[in-house]
Design goal:
This protein has helices at about 155-160, 160-175, 190-200, and strands at about 10, 15, 25, 35-40, 40-65, 70-75, 80-85, 90-95, 105-110, 110-135, 135-140, 145-150, 185-190. It is an alpha+beta fold and about 210 residues long. One of its GO terms (biological process) is regulation of gene expression.
Length: about 210
């Protein structure tokens, strides 16, 4: 089924890093894949739970964010990215709110660094994908990003997604390879649609539509 909603994903040319250090296009991720993300100042592993949204044929407007270290990542406007505050804490902000001079967390040669944004380019690209990991984050082109979009608070949504993670882990222990079904068609996953409807009812202020 197709549902009307803003597109909020990664561009199809985004690379993610598996725990064996292999870099693959984001569209090649499959449920159960082990990939890298950050936890505080450490590089850790996480696991791909489902593809929240995907469309290999449609185009979307992306914000390509470029750092002084040479890293860059393309996100749709309301997709959240990890930024470092003045007091050193991590906050997740929409790509459209990132400004030159903001500091992002990047990985180079297996080490975590802070790098400032030096340019932001708005461009149309074809194909978009939105994987969900257990930690709710991943490294996209070695830049730390959230898996979430169209929301105002990454941490709150990650907390309320706990039942989904419990179900996923239990299913995998029971050798269920596709806990949320084999979603291979273009469009938003039905689980996301249901969660969005629940959020509209119980916590509408968490949703960000523009």
């Amino acid at each position: 089924a197709k549902y009307a909603r803003p597109v909020s994903c990664f561009s199809s040319d985004t690379l993610v890093t598996l725990i064996n250090q292999q870099k693959i296009p984001i569209w090649k991720l499959r449920v159960g894949d082990q990939l890298l993300t950050l936890s505080r100042t450490k590089i850790v592993s996480t696991e791909m739970m489902m593809m929240l949204d995907q469309n290999q044929l449609s185009s979307a407007m992306f914000y390509t964010i470029i750092t002084a270290s040479g890293h860059q990542v393309s996100l749709t406007s309301l997709h959240l990215i990890a930024a470092i505050t003045y007091d050193g804490h991590i906050t997740y902000i929409p790509a459209k709110n990132v400004k030159n001079g903001d500091n992002l967390r990047v990985v180079t040669n297996g080490r975590v660094y802070s790098s400032s944004v030096i340019d932001i380019i708005k461009e149309i690209k074809f194909g978009y994908y939105a994987p969900l990991s257990i930690t709710g984050t991943l490294l996209a082109n070695n830049v730390e990003v959230s898996c979430f979009s169209n929301i105002k608070n990454h941490d709150i949504v990650q907390f309320y997604m706990s039942p989904l993670r419990w179900y996923y882990r239990l299913s995998r222990l029971l050798s269920i390879e596709q806990p949320f079904g084999n979603h291979t068609v273009n469009g938003i996953h039905y689980v996301v649609y249901m969660l969005h409807k629940i959020a509209q009812f119980v916590y509408p202020s968490i949703i960000q539509l523009s």
